[in-house]
Amino acid sequence: HFHLGEWWLRRDETERAIPHFERSLALQPTFAPSLRYLLQYTLGTNQLASAREYADTLLGAYYGDSEVRQLVAICYLRLGREQLAQNQTTVAIERFRKARELDAEDADIAFELGTLLLADGSFREALPPLETLLENRPGDASAHFFLAQAQLMDGRPRAAKSLLEKGLQLAEQSGNRSTAANIREMRKAISR
Fold it and tell me: pTM of the entire structure?
């Protein structure tokens, strides 16, 4: 079944290929190539509930495979965003934590988890993902701003000031007026 599914894929007949991949799992439930195709397909078609089932099965069978971990992390990132859109903040945080556990260096995951924890008042827990965000996006004024917020709220005003200075410089250089205004406001609050 798997090879017939690939044959249909090579002919750009995805809809005809998918049932063959599904049938191959009936014979071998943890067959990685079928699970990967099905996971990518369900993510691409926004069938996130099915994607999660494929992701969890794939992860359970191939946890040590870094490509599997990255693909499953993408799934959990998408699941977290879906929960966030439904105002399910607690569930979204759990999905983002799972994604970060699988791929700690991903900037999008770091952004989602870090900013959500920051907004939720979990300042100390927000620090590591926001540090990852800044490491991945050193030229992003917002990354400086978010990390500075977390540091300030965690009682580290000196470190926050340094980040705010750099963030302001980057915001002004890029013409990002909104971030520059937010940074100036925070700097004023610190100096009071």
Answer: 0.88
